[in-house]
Amino acid sequence: MFQGAAAINHWVERQFEYVLKAVEERHVKLIRLWFTDVLGQLKSVAISPTDLEVAFAEGVHFDGSAIDGFSRIQESDVLAMPDPATFEMIPWADGGSTGRMFCNIENHDGSPFAGDPRHVLKRNLQAAHKQGYTFFTAPEMEFFYFADGNPAKAPEPLDSGSFYDLTTSDVASDLRRQTLSVLEAMGIAVEYSFHEDSPSQHEIDLRYTDALTMADQIMTFRLIVRELAVEQGRFASFMPKPLSGVQGSGMHLHLSLFDQAGNAFHDEGEQYGLSSVGRQFMAGLLHHAREITAVTNQLVNSYKRLVVGFEAPVWVSWAQHNRSALVRVPLTKRDKPSSTRIEFRSPDPACNPYLAFSVILAAGMAGIANSYELPPETTKNLFELTPADAKKLGVAPLPTSLAEALDVMEGSELVRDALGEHIFEWFLRNKRSEWRGYKTQVSQWELERYLPSW
User: Fold this and answer.
1) Cβ-count burial of 195 within 10 angstroms (0-12 exposed, 13-18 middle, 19+ buried)?
2) Of 184, 238, 271, 276, which is most buried with the most CB atoms under 10 A?
3) Residue 164 has pLDDT above 80, yes or no
4) CA 344 – CA 351 distance, rounded (Å)
5) Contact 321, 273 (CB under 8 A)
């Protein structure tokens, strides 16, 4: 038994033992310890199997000041503590001899590090758990395949397919099939997979699970999609709007809370089978939607997707069948109350899932805690809604730019509390810098429109 086992509970001890045994039996040569920066970029520290027991007991030291949003130079040292429950083999790496684990980042005194997005989500999940709830999510992951990733030229799609098309492009079909196989090998369950609406755009829907596991799975999913594309000499992108004139990539999220009795969103006697808890959660999500948008849609480019005419929501509203609404109540499967859920349609796949899930959960829990009233359902086609119509209906717009979203976020106590002061302040500074950089650039569109005439 390795040092420090007596200080941890029996379940975690068994997890440690399982990983140590698996590493030995599978002849693992390298273990990658994964974590994310504040923006959701995956980071890695590699250790050998001989260092694994020490890593479990003492953590792996690294310089946090080298990671965006982590530490300042004068307080840089942090520890990566491997989470044994996340151990999986990486099928494509080193002939299948490399394993990986996600890490929790700690200070040297053992306290959680405030700049760790995974810790932020765990803290919000623990707060919900104290109220008796477990948060479940299921994302619809949209992305594009391109011929290459050269930013100096326009992206070149691999096909011209649309919704559910069975394309003749062997490359795209093979890539998606390989992706499903690797996802399964890494324990990530898939619900559906198909060609999306835009040329060379694809969607893979992940089967619902608890939010922390799903955030880990999204980080793994994005890496798998990119790695397999590179192996085929292609490029995969989760950029929200890489092509003009077609719809961008979203990450529609199916959300639910479970308590000891089962799905807390389900009430067979209520309209749509949605309980008062589900209605209050949805009301909270709508009430705070504008405040959390900078986190769920964190890029300048995100707001090129959230425009009228491209099947993305632009108004804060809800409906059952209306896919132009921000929040939708999907039909539940017959005789399956566990499928009762709500669908949040504005997030995109470039977000940091740990932070996005944190602010979404915080908004929903605020609705429950404060018994928010759900506004009337919007049955009109919101893609045809004018500002005057919206005003009459009392429907607010989502932020139309990153700058506006940051302004709204900055005044939100809910987002500040959900993210914590460290990440909240750093996120605002970083994203305002991104906006300033964007504002100073002259685009090709401007040159073509203005240079000849002015």
Assistant:
1) buried
2) 238
3) no
4) 14
5) no
How many of the other CB atoms lie within 10 Å of CB of 194?
14
What does the pLDDT average to over 135-156?
94
Q: pLDDT tens-digit profile of 89-132?
A: 999 887 789 999 999 999 988 899 999 999 999 999 999 999 99
> Measured between alpha carbons, how far is residue 369 from residues 136, 257, 363 in Å?
19, 14, 10
pLDDT digits (tens, 9 = 90+) for 73-84: 444 688 999 999
Does 170 fall in a domain? yes
| Beta strand pairing call for 134-146 and 209-210 | antiparallel
CA distances from 35 to 49, 170, 209, 438 (A): 19, 34, 20, 28
Which range among 368-372, 409-413, 450-454 shows the weakest confidence by mean pLDDT? 450-454
| pTM of model > 0.70 | yes
Looking at the fold, whether 214 and 233 belong to one and the same domain comes out as yes
CB 79 within 8 A of CB 115: no
- Reading phi first (left if > 0) and then psi (alpha if -120 to 50, else beta), residue 420 is in left
Question: Tokens in use for 391?
Answer: 């005003």
Q: Secondary structure of 209-231 in the HEC alphabet? A: EEHHHHHHHHHHHHHHHHHHHHH
Domain of residue 290 covers: 123-449
The residue whose two tokens read 């017959």 is 334
Domain count, the chain: 2
- What sign results for the dihedral spanned by CA atoms 168, 169, 170, 172? negative
Tell me the residue length of the chain: 454
Q: Which amino acid is at 200?
A: S
Asked if residue 228 has pLDDT above 70, the reply is: yes
